[in-house]
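Let us work through a complete example step by step.
Step 1: write down the sequence.
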Amino acid sequence: ALYSIVPIIFIGIWLGVVAAVHHNGFLDQVLRVLALIGYSVPAFVLGLLLLFIFYGVLGWLPPGRLGLGFEMIYNSPVFHHYTGLVTIDALLNGRVWMFLDALKHLLDPVLTLSFLSWAGLLRITRSSMLESLGQDYVRTARAKGLSEHVVITKHARRNALIPATTVAGLMFIGILGGVVITETIFNYPGVGSAIAQASEQLDYATVLGLSLLFGLITVIGNLVVDVSYALIDP
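Step 2: predict the structure and record it as tokens.
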């Protein structure tokens, strides 16, 4: 989830801005079709497709958290677990090769989560950007002789980012709350799989504890989004 949020926010918003700037052009039409596909394709279909291509056919990106050899080192007493995040712990243990192997295993699930989230964020950013570009202050900025780049990045985009930031925050909260299907497909068990397993076993303590965690994440996430409004568009 932490690795997914960077491409989700930056690439999703960037694609939305590009689509709005090229309104009704070829690039806009292509991005709208991709957004429609991403909005319609279920996570298990996209995940299995990526797994089939990049692991089944090409053999590049295997499922799981680590390769077999690295998994043995990771679970051995010589490896110190500082955070529980494989990539961070690998670097803190001075094992760069394990960090690279962990990144290789992360690419497919990160790409799955990112592509599914890009669709919604692209559509929101595009519509908000089109509304901003039609405002009086944008026409005034152009009349003052400002370059198109400055008009788009400094004037229109900042106002357009407010609804996009809200949607991105809700997406991130949802991803942190667990993505059971993606975890299952790529054999990368996490919080989502934990609460699903606890529900099946009627483990009420775990379900209540994780529900409290999700509630805390939601409150903190919404607070961060509210504070970010002032930073994005002062």
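Step 3: interpret the result. The chain has a mean pLDDT of 86.
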